Amino acid sequence: MLKDTIAAISTAAVDGAISIVRLSGDDAIEIANSIASINLLNKKSHTISYGFIVDPITLQEIDEVLFSVFKAPKTFTREDIVEINCHGGRFVTKKILSLCLMQGARLAEPGEFTRRAFLNGRIDLTQAEAINDMILADSNENMKLAIHGIKGSVKKLLDPLLENILDIIANIEVNIDYPEYDDVEMLTNDVVLPKAKAWLDNIDTILDRAQSGKIMKEGIRTAIVGKPNVGKSSLLNALLEEDKAIVTDIAGTTRDIVEGHIHLGGLTLNLIDTAGIRDTEDVVEKIGIQRSLQAMEDAQLVIVVLDGSRPLDEQDDELLEMTKDKTRIVVYNKNDLYEVADGISISAAKQEITPLVNKIHELFDHHKIAIEEPVLGNERQIGFMMKAKQSMLQAVEAMENGLELDLVEIDIQDAYTALKEILGEVHREDLLDTLFSNFCLGK
Ligand code: GDP
Ligand code: ZN
After folding, report:
1. Any idea which positions bind K(+) (predicted)?
2. Residue range 153-213+376-438, CATH number
């Protein structure tokens, strides 16, 4: 069991107005009490008390602080927790932490508070992951996805499916183990097959939406390609101007260019490195460069920039040919220099790129629905969902080929386990629990 008490500085490692040293575990209150000027042992749970940190050996007063006392089980980790709000200098904060360690706490590993919250059943694995997502969120959309996740949206999404599957598994097992037991419906392929197909549909829908969630969370991998001097850099600058988030971006305006992401009305473009394509003098010749090809291959959106003021040449044709199967937007730039607007025509230099921005929204806005609904949060979750799909597909095929249910059950069981893995809940016990609560077999 997790009996030891862990401690860590829970705020960022910079000087600030306030820092928090957090303790969690059976001895959290006792350890905090041993370095407090006041008695914390008699404090009610979920109360904040004013006092001082006192070095128990030298009796030196260290800092003026607030002690927040939270008693198990209604805490983040379901253990006793004390949070010490101190003045936020790095030196004093570290000193308080070291006193906690001296008094018997162990330095927490990264994520260990959240891990305890998970292991102690306070949150499921997807919620734990969402907490991390919230910390890393850098847009409204990411924030929304994270808060849904923290509130347990994935569990809510999966629970009805899990329940349905478990009912059938339990029923099949009873059929196998107690074939003579009359009170339980004898399942056949005719009954289970349509159910399995419906589960498969459900899984497919969840996987589809997960792709949308991914696009909202991670951004659209975007390549801007075109031969030299068509205006790619100018377009990049114009897009950055459109990025309203950049005004408030703490990292600063130029930072985002380096990171390569642009926020456009709820969508994020992740510019992928197409340097090999962008910088080359001779597109046709150098386009074969592996990296550039790969970048284009990986892109979820390719913006092909053409110079609308000149006739297209071989290099343009080559690029158009190469990208024809991709989700792409062909833009004719420099429309301030030419008359006839053909397709999507813009002027990057004059920052008149609305038709392009509109087209991006037209192509990708439908993904926005993902942040309003429960959605899988990351590759790990998607991976297990794909595993569930694979197993369920096998179950369906097996039934279609007339296999006995006791053989099909293994695949259904695997699908169920994969789904449970998403939540980090893989026990055999719940299967047994359901089995015995649904059917009274006490004879
Ligand atoms: P890149 O090599 O594709 O990145 O192209 P640049 O963005 O460096 O632009 C090449 C040249 O075209 C520069 O002199 C730009 O000022 C010019 N340019 C870019 N966009 C436009 C535009 O919309 N209109 C006009 N008239 N010139 C442009
Ligand atoms: Zn950003």
Report:
1. 229, 248, 250, 253
2. 1.20.120.430
Task: Report the range out of 74-88, 228-242, 258-272 with the highest average pLDDT.
Answer: 74-88
Residues flanking ligand 1, CB < 6 Å = 226, 228-234, 333-334, 336-337, 347-350
The residue whose CB lies within 8 Å of the most ligand 1 atoms, and thus the one to mutate among 225, 227, 229, 347, is 229
pLDDT for 252 beyond 60: no
Report pLDDT for 246: 44
Give the pLDDT band (50/70/90) at residue 245. low
Q: Which residues, in sequence order, are CB contacts of 73 under 8 Å at separation 6+?
A: none
Q: Is 182 annotated as a binding residue?
A: no
Q: Ligand 1 atom 28: the closest Cα is on which residue?
A: 349
As annotated, the residues of the chain forming the CATH 1.20.120.430 domain(s) are 153-213+376-438
Contact 220, 301 (CB under 8 A): yes
The ligand with the least distance to the CA atom of 338 is: 1
**Distance from the alpha carbon of residue 137 to the mean position of ligand 2, in angstroms:** 9
Q: What's the 239 CA to ligand 1 centre distance in angstroms?
A: 14
Pick the closest to residue 206 from 167, 160, 168 (CA basis): 160
> Where in the sequence of the chain do the CATH 3.30.1360.120 domains occur?
6-119
pTM of the entire structure?
Answer: 0.79
Homologous superfamily (CATH) for 218-361: P-loop containing nucleotide triphosphate hydrolases (3.40.50.300)
Burial of residue 374 (CB within 10 Å: 0-12, 13-18, 19+) is: buried
Which ligand does the CA of 141 lie closest to? Answer: 2
Tokens at 91, concatenated = 């030196």
How is domain 6-119 classified at the CATH fold level? Gyrase A; domain 2 (3.30.1360)
- CA 31 – CA 24 distance, rounded (Å): 10
Task: Give the model confidence (pLDDT) of 153-175 as tens digits.
Answer: 999 999 999 999 999 999 998 88
Note the ligand closest to the C-alpha atom of 275.
Answer: 1
DSSP E strands: which ranges in 100-230? 106-107, 220-225
Which ranges in the chain are annotated with CATH 3.40.50.300?
218-361
